[in-house]
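Aim 2 progress update. The chain analyzed this quarter is reproduced below.
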Amino acid sequence: MADLKYYDVILRPVVTEKSMNAMATKKYAFYVNPDATKNQIKEAVEKMFAGTKVASVNTMNIDGKNRRRNTADGIVTGKTAAKKKAIVQLTADSADIELFTGL
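Predicted structure tokens:
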């Protein structure tokens, strides 16, 4: 397992309609490093965003999608990169994550 620092764990937020609606119940979605564990994700959120307390972390591995391209040599098939997504539930007395307030 790789030695991940807390700033290497969270890659970017997931900005979709479903994830924006979940913010009302203090659930935030992030794409995370595929090697990150739930404990590492919890520590990274608490260190990166001041005043937050994580109640639970749910993770899911997302397989890459199949893609086809036409080239001079014919049709080439491949896959996009696989991802890992984490849904972070904050406690009721926790501060909101400021990254999402302007969206």
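The helical segments are 6-9, 17-22, 38-48. The first strand starts at residue 10 and ends at 13. These observations will guide the mutagenesis experiments scheduled for the next reporting period.
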